[in-house]
Amino acid sequence: MSNNTLFPVFLKTETAHFLIVGGGNVGLEKTETLLRQNSNIAITIVGTIIYPKLKAVIEKHSNIKSFERPFEKDDLNDIDFVIIGTDSSEVNLEVRNLAKERGIKVNAADQPALCDFYLGSIVNKGSVKIAISTNGKSPVLARRMREYFTEIIPDDIENSVESLNKFRANHKGSFQEKLNDLNKLTQGFEGVKKEGGQKKYKRLVFTLALSFLMFFVGFGLSTYVSFSSFKEGLNYIPNEFYYMLLIGFIAQLIDGAVGLGYGVTCATSMMLLGVKLPAISGSIHTAEMFSSAISGYSHYKFGNVNKKMLVWLAIFGVLGAVLGAYLLIYLGNEYEQIAYVVLSSYTFIIGIRLLVLAFKKIQFKKKIKFLGFLGFSGGFMDAFGGGGWGPIVTSTLLAKGRKSKYVIGTVSLAEFFVTMSASIVFFTSLGVSHWYIILGLILGGIVAAPIAARLAGKLPKKAALILVAFLVIVFSIRVFVKII
User: Fold this and answer.
1) Looking at the predicted structure, is the pLDDT value of residue 1 above 50?
2) Which of 142, 174, 185, 454 is most deeply buried (CB count within 10 A of its CB)?
3) Sign of torsion, CA 352 358 359 360?
4) Distance between CA atoms of 417 and 247, rounded to whole angstroms?
């Protein structure tokens, strides 16, 4: 038998009068919670000090009365519900006891023992309202569940509610007939939810990845590789394949778990192997597209993706990637030596940026401006330099105080669309080159992607960033010295 004895009810607020004791952040939060349900709800606020933000809310609502003074017994006159939010346990207990004497129901913030009722996390979608409670044990979990249901319930649910209401009103059959018909009409809701959630993204990513794989294999075999040469190649796989298999695994493991490092790790390694510059970025993006598809979907499955941020990063990241790819193809063909110097310098700078990020202190959450420009810059430099999407985009979002898990998940899924667009440009312009390197990166990355998604936010980030930065800086210096 469950020990949760709460009985959920929905209260009509038109005639209810709430008293909030406390004028700080708790008082502000509770006031805004009530106003979201009914902007005309009657509220009285009493606090020794009323914070400026709460005063600003009060000034906008004539239905809110406020008194900047200590609580008095007469404040309970004509009150239906009391919400206590002071930082004094003595005051909270006094208010609660006085309210109980009058039969007034009480809610005390973060003090379940003093509560007669809880203010749950509320999902509002038109006429649909869902209240979530954890019996006062975990408000954070209740808030996360609210975010989840807000996301999966379609915004146009009100249309369905209105249609069903009209159908119910016009139905002339018996109660049981009406109930049976309504059940039939709403049977598809579960399927719609699933299709609109994980399955929709899974199908999109899988279709795009599979289509490009077929294009990649078909074009490569028909244009460059005959069946006999392909069979012979399997018997004489170069050693670079095994190197890149390992590099692809390690790079994707770090990138998926920390949010950056795949491209620059692979790019510096391939420069040391003497691969042509356009082929470096082309091979990395072709391989990374498959691993980022699996990594991105894995993050989405584990709830690590912010959809609004994803749209901005993906759209502008694709535009930047296409432009960067075309520029690299031109420079790599016309000015190869200069391009090598530019790229090795760029990867060196990225290595320094990784070190700075590793020792950077956690900052408070700040508003992100020009999110589209950030996506464009990351996509451009990623395609041009063979890597940099993570160091540019992920590091910026983390520096703005965004939660690591959601930054990594969102950036990883957006990276799939960025790498796919760059791959198409490189592939159609250059064809298939160094197929064994591409294959090694793909296989290594695919194996590592689901593991990395599980490890997101759990690996020692500082140590991983320092290791990646060290490797990138050393490899970049070696490439630069080799050129000079």
Assistant:
1) no
2) 142
3) positive
4) 22
pTM of the model as a whole? 0.44
CA–CA distance, 147 with 65 (Å, rounded to integer): 31
The Cα-based distances of 182 to 44, 153, 187 in angstroms read 43, 19, 9
- In 335-386, which residue ranges form alpha helices assigned H by DSSP? 336-359, 371-385
Chain centre to alpha carbon of residue 461: 18
Please list, in sequence order, all residues whose beta carbon lies within 8 angstroms of the beta carbon of residue 360, skipping any fewer than 6 positions away: 399
pLDDT in tens, 399-442: 666 666 678 788 888 888 888 888 788 777 766 555 666 777 77
- The crossing angle, in degrees rounded to 10, of helices 198-223 and 404-430 is 30
Closest CA to 244 of 431, 471, 433, 438: 438
Q: How far apart are CA 204 and CA 293, in angstroms?
A: 10
Cα separation of 294 and 435, whole Å? Answer: 21
C-alpha of 368 from chain center: 14
Query: How confident is residue 177, by pLDDT bands cut at 50, 70 and 90?
Result: low
Residue 105 pairs in a beta bridge with 81
More confident position, 233 or 359: 359
**pLDDT-based confidence at 129, cuts 50/70/90?**
confident
- Do residues 379 and 320 make contact, with C-beta atoms less than 8 angstroms apart? yes
Q: Evaluate if residue 343 carries a pLDDT over 50.
A: yes
Closest CA to 441 of 272, 252, 231, 299: 252
Q: What does the alpha-carbon distance between residue 175 and residue 27 come to, in Å, rounded to a whole number?
A: 46
For strands 121-125 and 128-132, give the pairing. Answer: antiparallel
Say which residue the tokens 């490797």 belong to. 471
Phi, psi angles (nearest 5°) of residue 392 = -85, -55
